[in-house]
Fold each of these.
Amino acid sequence: MRRKTKIKSALLLFPGFVALPASLLAAETATTLSDVVVSDESEDGRPETPSKTDFATPKTKVTKAAIEKTNAVTTVDAVKFESGVFARQRYIGDQNAPIGMRGSNPYQGGRVMVFMDGMPIWNPLQISFNGSPRWGLIGPGEVKSIDVLSGPFSAEYSGNAMGGVLNYTTLMPQKREIYTEATYFVQPYEFEGTKTNLQGFKTFASYGDKFGDFSTYFSYNHIENEGQPMTPQVSGDKGFNRNTALAGLPNGAFLEKNPRTGQYRYNYGDDGIQHSVDDLYKWKGSYAINPELETNFVIAFQNFERTNTGQSFIERANGTTVWPGSTVANSGSLWPASLGASPTTLGTSTQTRQTLTLGWGLKGRIAGDWYTNTNISFFDILKDQTISSNYNPQDPNRVMTGRDSSFDDSGWFNISTKFNNEQFLGRKDLSFATGYEFQHSRILLTQSNLTNYENNTQATNWLNSKSGGTTDVHALFGQLSWRFMPDWDATVGTRLERWNSYDGINLSSTQQTGRLNPADRQVSRWSPKFSLGYEPGRWKFRYSVGKAYKFPLPEELYGNSSGVSGNVSLADATLKPEDGTHHNLLAEYAFNNGYVRLNLFHENVRNAIYNQSIYLPGSAVLSTLVSSVGEVETDGLDFTINHDRVFGSDFDVKLNTTILNAEIIANERNPAYVGKQFPLMPNYRANLLTTYHYGTDWDFSVGTRYSGRQFSQLDNSDQQLPYYSAFTESVYVDLKATYRFNKAGHVSAGIDNINDYQAFYNHPLPQRTFFAQVGYKF
C-alpha cells in the first residue's frame, strides 16, 4: 500500500531527500503554495519527489498503472491517450514514429524532447519521418512513470521543447526480481492489392537485484512484426473522366484519386510487407554514495533489421505477374502504357541499424541545500545501412543494380549538469536553479551505386551522393522563483544558447572533383521566461510566457539524398533558427483522485521550418524540400478531466480535447500561403479512456481516439481522400481486459481500432489489431 504525506510546496524536496525535519512540518509561513503529494514509496520502492524546475510548465504524470489500461506494446504507445500528443506509428515496432505536441506536428523534427532517466533519446539529427526519438532504448516493461510537459516555459529546456517534453523514468529494483512478459498481436489487413494476416510478437525479460548500496538491472526486449505495405506505387495523374478510365483499366490495377490534386491515377503495386526485428540489450546500475546522493549508469545495444520486397498487381489473363517496363519479348505481355512506370519502383530493400548508448548520471544533495541532476550520454550509430535494388527479384528482366545508403560517423553526445537550491540565500521563499548543457550532433550519409546489390559490389562510378555536417549547442540557464505572498509565486528565468554548424558537405556524382561545402555558421540567442502563479486551496491558476529558439538540425541543413525510384530530399544550409514566443494560461481544480484542467495557449513562430512534399518538374514521384515559413500563429484550447474511482465508484475516466487554429500570417517567399492553415495541424483532437475495475483482479477499458482533418500542403490544396499521400481524420475505438493473479502475474487481451477505420498519415495506418499478453514477476 502506498502511503502519502502532504507538505507545503515551499518545503519541496529534491530526489534523494528521505526525511523532513519535524520543525519544518510544523512551520506555518506566509510564503506557501498549495499542497502537493510526495509518495514515500513508488513502484520500485524508491522515493519520488516533485521538481521545482519545471512547475511553470503544464504537466501531467502518466503512471505505470495508467499505461496498463491500454494496449501499450511499445514505449510510444504509453502516451497515445495524452492530451495534445500524437505519434505517427505506422505499425508495432515502427522505428519511424515521430511525435508532435500542441502546436508542433510530428514532421517538425526536434520540437519534442524525450528523456530516459534524464538522458536525451530525442533525435537531434533528423527530421520528418526519420526524426523519431529512439523509443526502442526503453523497454515497455521497465517504464515506471512519464512526465508530460507542454511547451517551452522552463529555462531548463532548450527551444527543442517548443512542442513539449516527455520525461520517462524507469524502474530500478530494490530487491531481487525477475520479470517475464510475452505479447502476440495480429492485424487482418486488407487494402487494394493486399489481403493477409500480419502477425508479430514481443518478448521482454528482466533481472534486477540489490547488493548493499548497489542496484543492478538487466533487460532484453524483442519485437518482431509484419507491417502493412507503406508505399503504394501509383501512376501519374491522368486527364480522363471515370467512365473512360474504367474502360481502359489495366488487369489488376486499382483506380483511385490523388489526394493532392483530385485527379485519377492507377495503383499498380506497392513496396510489400514490412518485416521488422528489433532487439534491445540493456544494463543499468545505481550506487548510493550516501542516503541523499546516488550515481547511475546505463549501457544499451540495439539491433534493428527491416526488409520489404515490392509487389506488382498487374497480371496477364493466365495470372502471370507483369513487371514495369516489360515487353512481349521478355514476359509475354506489354506493361500497360497508361501506367508509365519505371522498373525501379518495385524493388527490394533491407535496412540494418545497430546503435550503442552509454550514460552516466549523478543525482541528489551535493552540499548544504544544493542538489544536482547531472547526466552525460553518448549515442553512436555503429551501423545504419539500407540496401535497395533497382528491380524486383522476380522480374525476369531484372539486373542486379541497386543503391547503398549508409550513415557513417553519425550520432550525438550530451552533457547536462543542473543545480537546484530550494532555500536560496537561506530564504524559504526563494528557489533557484542553474546549469550548463552541451549538445553535439553529427550526421553523414553516403549513397553508393551498386552493380550487384546482393553482395554489395560498388560500381566504377560508385558515388551517388555524400552529405552531412555537425552542429554544437552550448547553453547556460538560470531560474529564480519567489513565493512573495500566500498562495502566490513568480518565476523569472533565462537561457543563453550558442549554436554552431560546421563541417558541412554536399557532394554529388557530378561533383567528384569539387565539393560544395556550406559555410560554417554561429548564432547566439537569449530566451527569457516568466511565470506567475496563484494557488488557493484546490485551485491553481498560472500564466506563463517564454521565448524559444529551435536551431536547425543537421539533416535540415545538410540532408540531401535520393532514392532508387527517383525521389529526392533537398536540405537548406542557410536556414534561420525558429523564433517562438509562447503563452499559456492555466486553470485547474483538484479533487480526490483527479483534476479538471483548462489550458489556453498562443504561439507565434517565425521562420518555422517545414519539410514539405513536392513533385519536382517532370516527375510523378514525391520528393521533399526543407524550407522556412515566414510566420505561423497558433491559438489553442486544451481541456482535460482525469479522475480515478469517479465519485467513489469502480470507474476511472480520462477525457481530453485539443482545439487548434494554426495559421500562416506572413510569408515573403510566397504570399499566397498567408491565411492558410499550417500543415499537419488538425483543428480538433479528442481522447476518452474509461476503465472499470471489477473486484481487485479484473480491469476492463474502452478508449476512443479522434483526430480531425488536416492539410499537408502549404497552399491547403490537398483533399481528404483515403489513399497514399493523404493525411486524413481518424477515429479509433480500443478495448482491453486484464486479469491479475497471485499478485505477481497478469493476462490481458485487447483490440485496437475495433471499428477497422482506414486512416492515412501519408502512409496507411494500422487497421483492426488484436492483442494477447501474459506476464509474471518472480
Amino acid sequence: MTETVNAASQTSGGTGKGLTLERVFSTPGVHPYDELTWERRDVVQTNWKTGATVFEQRGVEYPDTWSVNASTIVTTKYFRGAVGTDVREWSLKQLIDRIVVTYTKAGVDHGYFATPADAEVFEHELTWLLVNQYFSFNSPVWFNVGTQSPQQVSACFILSVDDSMDSILNWYKEEGFIFKGGSGAGLNLSRIRSSKELLSSGGTASGPVSFMRGADASAGTIKSGGATRRAAKMVVLDVDHPDIVEFVETKAKEEDKIRALRDAGFDMDLGGVDITSVQYQNANNSVRVSDEFMRAVEDGTDFALRGRKNGEEIERVDARDLFRKISEAAWACADPGLQYDDTINDWHTNPETGRITASNPCSEYMSLDNSSCNLASLNLLKFLKDDDTFDAALFAKAVEFIITAMDISICFADFPTEPIGKTTRDYRQLGIGYANLGALLMAMGLGYDSDGGRAMAATITSLMTGQSYKRSAELAAIVGPYAGYARNAEAHQRVMRKHQAANDTIRTLAIADSGVHKLATQAWADVVELGKANGFRNAQASVLAPTGTIGFMMDCDTTGIEPDFSLVKFKKLVGGGSMQIVNQTIPRALRKMGYQPEQVEAIVAFIGENGHVIDAPGLRQEHYEVFDTAMGARSLKPMGHVRMMAACQPFLSGAISKTVNLPESATVAEIEDVYLQSWKLGLKATAVYRDNCKVGQPLSDGGGTAKKDAADAAEAAAAVETKVIEKVVYAPTRKRLPKSRASRTTSFTVGGAEGYMTSGAHDDGQLGEVFLKLGKQGSTLAGVMDAFSIAVSIGLQYGVPLETYVSKFTNLRFEPAGLTDDPDVRMAQSLMDYVFRRLALDYLDFDARSMLGIYSASERQRHLETGSYDLPPEETGNASELIESGVTLVESTSVADPAETDEVVETKDTHGAEQREIPAQVHQGKAHTSAELLEQLTGTAVDSPLCMTCGTKMRPAGSCYVCEGCGSTSGCS
C-alpha cells in the first residue's frame, strides 16, 4: 500500500486534502472476501466440570485458513446479538464489516481521504489485513464498534484520585464503568495522605491501603464487558509514601491467608468459589521507584518517606531494607512489580501538561492521568517471506495503514468519563504493537536470548514506531496535530531525537536485520524532519501489550514480546477435544539452519516425545539456544527476558507487558538483581513471577507446591544446605505370563464404533496383557492398536501398576466418544477412556478404584440409596432396574466433598432421556486448584491451570493467561 500525502497538505495547520492511497494487499476489482474459501462450522462449548453446554452456535462462517481455536474464540467473545435470534452475527464477514464500515465512514466524515476512491481502498485494505489475520484491534473494538453500545475503543485507561472522599468515591464509580465496557484501568494512590498523617478534623487518616479494599471488592463483582474474565486493574504507590511498607505487604499477607484456607478445605483456585473471601486479588500492584531511591539502594543509605500534604519528612528508612521487603513480597506472591519513574518521564512527550504517574493494568500504557489508549497488534510471522527473511517494506506499509485506522477511531469513540474523553481527544494516544515475536525469531533460526535475536527484535520495534510517528506527522499536515502539541512541541521533538539516537546505536549482525535497520533509520530521519514542519497527530504511538485473546484470534504461536512457552502445544480439533503437537515453527527453523528432511523428521519426533531438544538426534549443540522456551528443560534465564525487553524499550512510546519468569528455587536476592538490572538497562517497568509462589498458579514448570512464605524468604535465600545422598539404582525385571492363563474377552461400542478387548492375567489375578481389536486387519488403526497393546502389556509385565495406566488414559478426549453399551461405563470420552475404565473395573479392587473415582453401576446405585459406595451388595438394590427404565447414571466430575454434595440432580440428555448425576468420591488428597486437579487426574505434573469455563489448558499472555479453547482470560487485553 503505497500512500502519499497530497502536496497541498504539507502544512502544520491541518488544511490538507486527505490521503491518497494505493493498494498493496488487496486486489483491484476483487473484494478481499472473494479471495478466500469459506466454510460453515459448529461452535459448541461445554463446562468441563458439569458437562453442561455453556455456548452453542451452529453454522458459523469462517475462512478455511482460520483454526478451530480462532473461530471458537471470535464466535463466543466478539459476535454480537442474542444467541438463537435473527440479530445474532453468524459470519466473520459481518463482524469485520461492522468494524471496517464504521472506521471508513468516520475517516470520510473527518477528512482523512482525498477522494471516495481512496476511502474504498482504505476499506478494502483494512478488510484484507483483518480477514487474513495480519493484525487485530484490541478487544473493546470488537465488543463495541458498530453496535448500539457506546463506541468504546480503548482497552487501557489511567485514572486519577485526589486526597478527598469525593475523589475516592468517584474513583470507584469510574472504574466500574471502565470494567463494564471490557477494559482495564490503573491509577496512582500516592496523593492520598498516609495513615501516619492527621485529618483537618484532628483524626488520623485511613491511608490508601484501606481504600484499596473497597475498590477491590467493586472490581470483583464486575466482569469485563459482560465476559468471563475478571476486571483488570493496576494500583501504584510511590516509594516515598509513608504507607509504602503496608502497601508492599498486602498481597503477601493475603497469600498466607489463601494457603491457610486452602489447607482447611476451601476452594481457593483463581476461579474458585471461596477466593472472594480474601482481599486485593483483583489488582496488580506496583511500586513507583525513583532514581534517588535506586541509588540509595546501591549505596546502602537512608531514604526519606514524605507526607502527602506538604512534603515534610515523616520518617527515614534504610533503602536496602525497603528494597528487600519489596523483593520478599514479590518472591512470595509475585507482587509488587516496579515502575521506574525517572526513566518513564524522561521519555514523556507531554511533560508541560503533567507527569506520568501510573499505567494500565499490564504496565504497557503509560501516559497522563485521566487518559486512554486504543491498541492494535500485528502478527509478525505473517511478514516472514518464503526465504525466511523479514519483509520490512511490507511491514512498514501495514504499520502506516493500521496507525491511520487507529487514529480515526478516536474521532468517533465514546469514553466512560468526560475528563478521559477530553484528554484522549486532545492527545490522541495510540498503542500499536505486535505478537508472535518468539515464533518469528525461532523460524529465522535466532535464539531469543542471543545478540542476533535481540538485534532483530530491536530493529523491528524501531521500524514500527518510526513508521508510526512518520504517518502521525503526515496526518498532522492533513487533519492537524493533537491539541496539546503546541505547548509540548519542544519536548515531543526531543523524545523523537532520543528514539533516533537509540536507533543509531543498534548493531546489526546479518543481512536480515540490517535491511530492517536501514528502513528504520530512514523512517526516524523522516520523523524528525516532518515533525518540525507539521507537528504530530498523536502524543504516543506504540506499546507492547500481552495480546492474549487477540493473539489467539490471529492464530499466533506466541503472544506479545514473549518467547515460545513450550515446544509442544495443544491443538483443538473440529470434532471436539484436543491433541498435543510439536509447534510448526520448529521444522521451519530446522530447515532454515540447513538440516535435511530426514534429520528434521527425527528431531521433531524426539521433541514430540520428550518436549525438549537436549540430545535430539543430529541437532548441533550450538543450535540448542534457538529452541529455548519460557518453561521446560531449557528454559530461558531470567536475565534473558530482561535483556530482550531492554533491547526493545528505547523504541516504544509506552512500555512492555511482560513477566520475568523465575524457577521455584529462585531466591530473594535473584529477584533483587532482576529489579536492579532492569533499572540499569533502562526499562520502564518490571514484573516477576516465581514458579508456584501462588496458590492460584498461573504458570508452573514442576507442579510442586510453594511451601515457603514471606517470613522465611530471607532464610531460604541465604541458607544453602549440602547433602550427600547414596544413589541406589533399581533395574526392573519382567514377570512373564504363564503359557496357559485366564483371560476374558469384552465386546464394546463407543459412540457407534465397535471393538473387542482381550485381557490376560497372572495366576494371582493381576493383569498382565491387553489386546485390542478396533479395525479391519491391515488397517492403520488396527496396526496402531496392536502396537499400543504390546507396549501396555510389556509395561504391565515390567511392573507398571495398572492404576498408573488408568490415571493416565482415563478422561482423554477424542473421537469416537459418547454412549457405550456397557452398563457400568455408560459414557466414554474416547476409546482409551472406556478401555481403561473397563480394565479398572475388572482388575482393580474397590479401594484402588475409589481413589480414581471409578465405580460400577451397582456401586453408584448403592451410593444413591445409602450415601455409601461400599455396602455389601445384598443390602442394596441393583442398578439394572433404573437402567432398564431409561435412566442413565452419569458420574459427576465435581471435586466437592460427597458429604456436602449428596444431592442427586436430575436432568435430561439430548434425546430427552432422564439422567441422574451422582457425586463421585474425591481423591484422598483433595484438589484445591484446577492445576492440582489435573495433576491428580493425569498422575503427572502440569505446566498451566485448567480453564474454569471449558477445562482446556491455559497459556500465559504477558502478566496474564488465556484459554486457547474458549478465549477466557484472567483480565488483560
